[in-house]
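Quarterly update from the structural biology core.
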Amino acid sequence: MSTPNPPAVRAYLARVRTALADLPAAEVDEIVEDVRPHLLEIAEGLGDRATIEAMTEQLGSPESYAAEVRAAGDYPPPPAEGTEGAEKPTGSRRAGARLALWVLVLGVGALALVGFAVGREFDAELLGMLVLIVPALAAAGWYVWSRGTGPVAELPEVRRVRSGASRRAGSLAVHLRTMAPAWWVLCAVLMGLSALLLVIRSSTAILVLPLFVGIAALALWAGPRSRTDRRLLWASVPVSVFVFAVGSGMVGYLADSLEDSTSESPYQYTSNTAYDGEPGLYYGDEELENLYVFDADGKPLRDVYLYTEDGRPLTVPRYGCEESTQSRITQGRDNRFPRPHIEQGGYDDEGNYNGYNAYRPSCTESDEVPFTAAIPK
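Predicted structure, tokenized:
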């Protein structure tokens, strides 16, 4: 663009000025100068299609744009506000508005915790906590929907927060508006992906599939509309926070899964390995080659198969004797216990025991248990 202010930008700004005409002229000039660079950026992106209609399609009408800047900068409302916020709230309405506000704040915090836990653990049972959160948010949202956001905006705590924010936050808010459509689509996609991964991990998670579909639909419907209808913030804000929390938890879950897959064998039960690099069975720092199992009467059990708590076989090396060399060798891996007791050694020419360095090596296998067990009663 060769001109600093294209016609579409000038026309858009003129309507913004008109919508803010009740404010002091100096403040209106400050607002216009704050938002002008953003409008020029939008117009430059549109190129030859830069018309006020095209800008309205991306940013909303100049009047709604001005209303958002007004709200973000804590400027007083226009003289005629229609049905929303036109009358001062009574004591009962103020109590209801305060309850709706704090239900939103606390509900959003609880959703953040639940969403992160669901994404981190991929446990569908954690979603049961939504039974307490969602109805409260729905009731607060219904209150605001039927009475408007005016009573909430007039609450002292809301006015203090808004007055503490910089008026230039209005330009940031309108910048974020251009990202909103993509964000709501991303919310729906993340909910679908989360539901799919939950169902893959646990078939019972299919019971919560309608919940995720409902959240995705709510994001697509309420999200874009909440920029002009503030009553829908009681739907769009919880959805945004929940989706962001689930996504953050998923990042941690996938990072841990990637680390586990690259650092451990899929059949490794501890960080210790046997001499051949395969998983070993350890008690503290001591590698175990055999296990003996007894019943309540102290009788040893034969052919016992050991499994972990999630059904994986506890496979460790099995040793035996090589007949030709009379040496101990590995005969594979399995989870059947007890194994034969291996006795290996030899004697020199004088008949003295010489252990593993024997001149005449020997290796024998015995199925006898080399000890007796006293089972506590």
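Residues 91-121 form the longest helix (31 residues).
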